[in-house]
Amino acid sequence: MKAKVVCALLMMFAACGGAFAQQVDTVAGKVWSLRECVDYALANNLQVKRSELSLELSSIDKRQAKLALLPSANAFASYGFNWGRGIDPVSNQFISSQRNGYTSVGASGDVDLFNGFRLQNTIKQTSAQFEASEEDLAKTRNDVSLNVISLFVDVVFNKELQENARLQLASSRQQLERTGKLVAAGSLPRSDELNLQAQVSTNELNLINQENNLNLSLLRLQQALQLPASDKFDVEIPDISTQDLVLDQTRNEIFHVARGTMPEIRSAALRIKSTSYAVRASRGNLYPRLSVSGSINSNYSSASATRFIPDGGFNMFETGYFVQGTNEPVYGLEPTGSFREIYGFNDQLKDNLYKSVSLTLSIPIFNNFNARANVQRAMISHEQARINAREIENTLRQNVETSYNSALAASKSYNASLRQVEAREEAYRMAKQRFDIGASNYVEYQLAENDLFQARSDLSRAKYEFIFRKKVLDFYLGNSLGL
């Protein structure tokens, strides 16, 4: 989603000047603006952090898929001892039961020359998956922003209702004080004062209820920001205007634009693309594989390190055989000399060096249908991605239609509430004048007052509903939402 979408939502309130502010030194006691609430939520929300980690995992998968094209290489080295009769790994001759040390070193590597384009398609698959994860992160950030904005609007709305209740209570108390003086002077009956006392108590209860609603909305916003409920928390009331807020697009026009701008739509399309490459990659396992590999190794044995060096002399020894037909032994000659360590480590490694290069063609014939099963699974995943994309598009259409209908209804309610407040204010002014001069009774006056404050509450509700719903539509349109 374009970065301007989230920022534009902030401009709904933040671009307008704040109505008031507090001087505080700590985060817990500060007055929060809408922009600060959204920024803080985006920086600390666990869903956003989870999406960021998912994006990082997708980045690793993408990088690993590209590195898979490189040759693989491994080296090894071993060192050990053996005892007893055995075979010299250098000379392949039997050796005595003495302790012998041995060392083996080597390296090998291989690279695919052809594998049915499996690696290339895997790269395209992970690249599309990475882009889809980026869109998922954008959607998560949008969802968090919209949720915080909605909760912020509830707080501002409840603040206005609380102020209306406070004004109603102040008006009732003022009227009670005036009526009390007139009752004391005998100009009005005692019942009018009692009725006003009851009305004051009712307005006090209404103010308490509005304060509770405000505290609850503040708590919900505070919880969305993952701030402790024990911290002092308040929000800044912006100067909100409803001028030029008109519905100048149809629901179909809004949906057409949203289908090209919303990150969830782009994410679904990218996942279709990713799964299509996954199908191609899985089919690569059905093709022959051609690879080239090579290795180099050598070894050393302490049994070969010691060699017999003759000194030119000979010793006679009995061979254990006899001259045929006699008891005369047969003698043999063996050279005399000594064993010396003249075949050292470096010489053995050099002489025992072994190199190999091979070209391997692997043709799949039968593998218990595992490769074909993987192809079928990939095709099903691809179809699921297509269904998911259609479902997301239908959900977006429903959300746009619902928001459009809500905005249209709020617009009508707001215009009707404006006319109702104007009429109720005039009716209340006239009822108050008549009540002050004794031309009407308390019931008529109180009814006019209650109707006025109820109309003002309805106007506040319609105003904030209209503004928010209109801004949601602008969000779908990707427009600048500053007022």
Textual characterization of the structure:
The protein is α+β, with helices and mostly antiparallel strands. Helices cover about 60% and strands about 20% of the residues. It is built from eleven helices and ten strands. The strands form four sheets. A four-stranded antiparallel beta sheet has the order 2-5-7-10. A two-stranded parallel sheet has the order 1-6. α2 (about 35-45) packs antiparallel against α4 (about 120-185). The model is unreliable at about 1-25 (pLDDT under 50).
Secondary-structure element string: HEHHEEEEHHEHHEHEEHEHH
Class of the largest domain in CATH?
Mainly Alpha
Q: What does the oligomeric state look like here? A: single chain
N-C termini distance = 21 Å
In helices, the fraction of residues equals 55-70%
Looking at CATH, which topology of the largest domain would you report? Outer membrane efflux proteins (OEP)
Overall shape? elongated
* Beta-strand residue fraction: 15-25%
Helix vs. strand class? alpha+beta
Kindly give the count of domains.
Answer: 2
- Number of separate strands: 10
CATH superfamily of the largest domain: Outer membrane efflux proteins (OEP)
Label this structure with key terms:
single chain; alpha+beta; Outer membrane efflux proteins (OEP); 2 domains; two-stranded parallel sheet; 11 helices; 10 strands; disordered N terminus
In short:
This protein is α+β, with helices and mostly antiparallel strands. It contains 11 helices and 10 strands.
